[in-house]
Amino acid sequence: MKIIVCIKQVPDAKDVRLDPVTNTLAREGVQSIMNPYDQHALEEAVRLKEVHGGEVVAVTMGPPQAEEMLRLAISCGADTVVLVSDRAFAGADTWATSYTLEKALKKIGDYDLILCGKQAIDGDTAQVGPGLATRLGIPFVTCVQKVREATATGLVMERMMDDGYDVVAADFPLLATVVKDINEPRVPSLKGKMKAKKAEIITLSAADIGADTTCIGLPGSPTKVVDVFPPPARGERAVLEGSIDEQIEQLVDKLVPYL
Ligand SMILES: Cc1cc2nc3c(=O)[nH]c(=O)nc-3n(C[C@H](O)[C@H](O)[C@H](O)COP(=O)(O)OP(=O)(O)OC[C@H]3O[C@@H](n4cnc5c(N)ncnc54)[C@H](O)[C@@H]3O)c2cc1C
Q: What are the boundaries of each domain within the chain?
């Protein structure tokens, strides 16, 4: 089974900064981590490989510093890692990101399964997975919480829903986005870290993937972030103290004037 995992490097939530000129996230010199959902996607790919054999390829579109995250992916069980990197990709919205990943995956060649995280903790749109599958013309299942069965031709999965889950079967090639409930990511082994140190990082530029320069980066992004600002502080807040009964009484007192 050949599994491609799309992983994104995101600013560590404690260190989010904005580029005041482009209104996009500053990524240079910022503490970065592997998007937490993608760690679960990578773990699921490695577990499927351990049972069914095959290869796990981790792919990221990002700046050169994303190499560090790809080495972490190797230490967690990925066999091959691909950095899709070019200054021309900067400022991409989800439309341009899914286009770039589509071109990169077509360059990488055949696969059975693509795994993505449900969403990235910075852009938070959850759009890239479904967008990429649509561009590749393959079926996709979002919010997968469990892979019940894997055969040579496809998967049976549980898709998380508000009121429980659906059981969904789909044939390869397919794309699935995963939620955190699907597994507990492993901690990199010493052997894995050693392998990661020596690992080759395959790097693909815009030219290498045959990208149309009008479809990538800021020029290729129909979505323009025109302004980013913290939400306005809401009205006066009150913390209710005491036993439940006392708190209910205080709450009623506060609500009565509004009735
Ligand atoms: C605060 C903020 C708000 C934004 N709002 C928007 C918006 O409203 N609309 C818009 O189009 N763009 C928006 N962007 C830009 C958006 O972050 C980028 O387009 C980004 O590359 C992909 O979108 P996402 O972060 O929402 O990822 P999601 O769609 O949430 O990511 C889902 C999954 O796709 C895969 N993936 C995502 N990016 C990559 C990558 N670079 N390499 C490999 N795999 C990847 C991962 O598996 C990830 O778990 C915003 C960015 C920021 C920082």
A: 2-232
Whether the Cβ atoms of residue 248 and residue 241 lie closer than 8 Å to each other: no
pLDDT digits (tens, 9 = 90+) for 141-190: 999 999 999 999 999 999 999 999 999 999 999 999 999 999 999 999 99
The preferred substitution site among 93, 101, 118 for testing ligand 1, maximizing ligand atoms within 8 Å of CB, is 93
The residues, any chain, with a CB within 8 Å of residue 140's CB and separated by 6 or more, are 129, 130, 133, 134, 174, 175, 176, 177
- Ligand 1 near 82 CB (within 6 A): no
Superfamily of domain 2-232: HUPs (3.40.50.620)
| Separation of CA 103 and ligand 1 centre (Å) | 17
* Per-residue pLDDT tens over the stretch 124-141: 999 999 999 999 999 999
**Does residue 127 have its Cβ closer than 6 Å to ligand 1?**
yes
For 45, 73, 141, the CA distances from 146, given in Å and listed in that order, are 12, 21, 12
* Ligand 1 atom 43 nearest Cα: 60
Mean of the per-residue pLDDT values of the chain: 93
Phi then psi dihedrals of residue 2, to 5 deg = -100, 120
